[in-house]
Amino acid sequence: MNQDLSENRNISTPSYFYISGFSGIPHMRYYYIFLLFVYIISLLGNSCLMFVIIMDRNLHTPKYMSVFNLSLTDICESTAVIPQLLDTFLFGNQLIPYGLCLSNMFSNILFFAVQSLTLAVLSYDRLVAICLPLRYHMIVTHRSMLVIISSSWTLAMLLTITGAIFMSRLSFCRVIVTVNSFYCDHGPIYRSACNNNFPSSVIASLFPAIILGFPVFFIIFSYTCIAVTLFRITTPQDRQRATKTCTAHLILVAIFYVPITFTYALSSIINTNTRIINLSLTTVLPPMLNPIIYTFMTEEFMVSVKRLLKRRREINFVLEENRKKRPTETQELQLDFSHSLEIN
Description:
Helix content: over 70%
Strand order of the largest sheet: 4-3-5
Order of helices and strands: EEEHHEHHHEHHHHH
Radius of gyration: 27 Å
Number of strands: 5
Strand content: under 5%
Number of helices: 10
């Protein structure tokens, strides 16, 4: 056992973490196959969303910078969670080395944090657009949005690095530590430590407050101000137009925050299997639904998609016409050449 533990200044690190996952649920293989399809749809949907934003200059706006950032983090989050989950349970590789487990844990935390903060950034964009429409283009600029998005990534990385430093100071008494979750979950791991885990427990309490509590509070504040502004709008058409611009974002907020809030609020009541299912669906479903919601519920984006498809059809039409002309031009050249030979 002493050979399996790596000792560094009285810090004992385990060789492996054992991801227990679900227990006593039959036919779970179908659930993992379902997650694989969710992952494929997430990749395709978010890639298409990012492609349209890049190709259409009309979408090169501060709002769609944050939408692009949300799609990017959706792809990163899905890629960090689902392939590892499938390898763990679908192929039975539930023993994960110490270093790989920690890197998987903190990549999940990083992308989850950026997702949450980006939803708050989108609510800020809607707040300024509806409450201060005349000053919107002065306040929400490309530069200011780039600063806000960069600050979100910086904050998430600082929290992640801090958590990683404290996690590296934990000592474990077993060669193989069992983790009652579907991935390398921060909570079950730091609670399994033998030495003082108080710093990690502080991080575990501080992280949800900053990454979940602050964005939720800001989103509620934003939409309270938006609701007050909408009541002051006398024209029903303007009220309906303003409400429509917020609907897609509100659906994204509900899909992302409601399940995870209930899961953490009722963590002492619900059993492990229910908690794992809720957390896994909360992790993988929003990245799949985000591009679908923005595609079908945002008129501006649909106009851009139609514009790109129309442009593509025009290019294909021109290429087809050129192909039809080439044989004719070749035949004319052959006739001219043969006629010149006859004359000679």
